[in-house]
Design brief:
The protein is mainly beta and about 550 residues long. A hairpin with a 2-residue loop joins β39 and β40. The chain has 5 domains: about 130 residues, Sandwich (Immunoglobulin-like); about 100 residues, Immunoglobulin-like (Sandwich), CATH 2.60.40.10; about 80 residues, Sandwich (Immunoglobulin-like); about 100 residues, Sandwich (Immunoglobulin-like); about 100 residues, Immunoglobulins (Immunoglobulin-like), CATH 2.60.40. Strands 2, 3, 5, 6 and 7 form a 5-stranded antiparallel β-sheet that branches.
């Protein structure tokens, strides 16, 4: 459904769509007048019962930020009607109390546009609306008192972009009663984590000893009462410290679940680290992070103090597993850091930065014309496919580098076989790499690690496109997942293109990079881990095989599987 719907992330896309609709209802833009209409009924997605008083908004589908030009409500029988429409495609969004706001047949970041015009059936629309669910709870301390301003994180396990993974959905804070509520959730698998700080941790004396003002003495002087140096560990539902052991709440449509937490403080861990004094004129530092669900990492909180002699103290953290990474100097963070398991206060040294090889420098240029992008992102990977660096090349906009030059100073030492590709903009492709100090074959760079490497990376903009229609039993099919995958299975993340078929079965895949592909339309592809070859294999045999050339626009009809 449209170019931007294919590539913009869900949170950004829905935010843009929300901004487009957040208008004064008395200041709506002109409607695209014509003789056509969109007519249908809104029903409960589970029961099929018609839903009255559903708010429906409509916008043209050319861009996700197109403004809403009309807002209506369904009648007592769930029926709705947008009249006097011009020929084209429209996006319709529905919301109702107790139901999550949704686009028509929405899946992930895709939805189905309703085509209007001669020969288009736009008057028998059945809009299934999914009831929302909630998770609520209370966070209390060791005395049963409310824990205020605790950070509550909602996690979900779902398939996105063909991969089953754990993603962070949203964060809220507990109120004065320690309560929280996570609403407007669709049915699915969810879990919750809690990160909080004892209320008295904000009172500290010089030297870091927690204390608060106490009673006055007979002399009238105020005393200081030392408070225990304790912290709350991060807990995952139901009340485990390791996210690998957290349990999932299987939310059903319209369901409400409770997830309470009871926090018990424990002694704070103090980590003494010697990070060295550097030599670059910048005082070294170190960053401590902890692993979050799905493989991400996040801030652990606590207090950090660094001395000029290269000694650092990290306090106010709970026992557990962390990653410590040295920072500072001209290259920023150094190496991958080290995993440490803290069961109590510890000391360690982190003053030896990992050895680095020679720098790689280069310039990015267009095959034709000037490089006119605000920012390009080049990706460098090793022979095993592990990403080493993301190179940001600015050639336009404020503070830009018009030469398109880039440099990597902290290349791992030793011989390297590296793969260079362009990640952003998505319609750019690396056409040629010229190198001094390394051997080049296509986009592969081989260096012995003994000398500086200088590159000239020539890129071109792809204008290739595939337009088509998804058919089933001789009729156009709405809501199919359109999937274009490279036939050789390489560069899946970069070369795959997806869309969702509109009400007339049509779809559009822009910015396709040259190469050989398999095109398929999957009726139930949204719940498939299609990124796994074994999952996709039964469908590839029936797919349409295509060879895409530079600048080519192809039309195709594909049968829905």
């Amino acid at each position: 459904m449209s170019v931007l719907r294919t590539f913009v992330t869900g949170s950004v896309l829905l935010a843009l769509a929300g901004l487009a609709r957040a208008q004064n209802p008395f200041d709506l833009p002109p409607r695209p007048n014509g003789p056509y209409e969109i007519r249908g009924v809104v029903v409960d997605a589970n029961t099929g019962e018609p839903l009255p008083e559903v708010e429906l908004s409509i916008q043209e589908s050319a861009q996700p930020t197109s403004p809403t030009f009309e807002v209506i409500q369904s009648d007592s029988n769930g029926k709705f009607r947008f009249a006097n429409l011009a020929e084209g495609k429209y996006s319709v969004r529905a919301s109702r109390q107790g139901y999550a706001e949704q686009e028509f047949l929405q899946h992930e970041n895709f939805w189905t546009g309703i085509a209007v015009g001669p020969g288009k059936d736009s008057i028998h629309v059945r809009f299934p609306l999914r009831r929302s669910a909630t998770i609520a709870g209370q966070v209390t301390d060791e005395n049963g008192e409310a824990v205020r301003r605790a950070n509550v994180t909602l996690w979900t396990e779902q398939i996105e972009n063909g991969v089953r993974n754990i993603t962070r959905v949203q964060d809220v804070q507990t109120d004065d009663q320690g309560r929280y509520r996570l609403g407007h959730l669709l049915a699915g698998k969810y879990s919750v984590s809690i990160q909080a700080t004892p209320w008295y941790s904000r009172y500290t004396l010089t030297g870091g000893i927690p204390a608060i003002s106490g009673a006055t003495t007979s002399t009238g002087k105020d005393t200081q009462i030392a408070l225990p140096d304790v912290v709350y560990p991060v807990l995952y539902y139901p009340s485990v410290r390791d996210w690998h052991g957290m349990e999932w709440i299987n939310l059903q449509a319209g369901q409400g679940e409770t997830a309470d937490f009871h926090l018990v403080p424990e002694p704070s861990v103090h980590l003494q680290v010697y990070v060295g004094t550097g030599g670059s004129g910048q005082r070294p530092n170190a960053a401590l992070s902890m692993e979050f669900p799905g493989g991400g990492e996040g801030n652990v909180g606590g207090n950090t103090a660094v001395s000029d002699s290269g000694e650092m103290e990290i306090s106010g953290i709970a026992a557990g597993s962390y990653r410590l990474q040295r920072a500072g100097g001209p290259t920023g963070f150094s190496g991958e850091g080290q995993r440490i398991d803290l069961s109590g206060s510890s000391e360690l040294r982190l003053d030896e930065a990992p050895a680095s090889g020679s720098a790689i420098r280069g310039v990015l240029r267009m095959e034709e014309g000037e490089l006119k992008v605000d920012q390009a992102i080049l990706q460098l990977k090793d022979a095993q496919g592990h990403a080493l660096n993301g190179l940001y090349v600015s050639a336009g906009g404020e503070g830009a580098n018009p030469t398109g030059s880039f440099a990597i100073e902290n290349v791992p030492a030793g011989p390297q076989v590296l793969q260079l590709s362009i990640v952003q903009p998505q319609d750019f492709v690396v056409k040629k790499i010229e190198a001094k100090g390394a051997k080049v074959s296509g986009t592969t760079i081989e260096t012995d690690g003994t000398q500086e490497v200088n590159l000239i990376v020539t890129v071109a903009q792809s204008s290739s496109m595939i337009e088509g229609t998804a058919m089933k039993n001789g009729k156009p099919f709405a809501g199919a997942m359109i999937l274009l995958v490279p036939e050789d299975g390489t560069e899946i993340e970069r070369r795959v293109r997806r869309d969702q078929s509109d009400s007339d079965g049509t779809f559009r895949l822009p910015m396709v990079l040259p190469g050989k592909y398999a095109l398929m339309a999957l009726e139930n592809g949204w719940e498939m881990e299609w990124s796994k070859p074994e999952v996709l294999r039964p469908f590839v045999g029936k797919a349409v095989k295509m060879k895409v050339l530079e600048g080519q626009v192809q039309s195709v009809v594909v049968e829905v599987e």
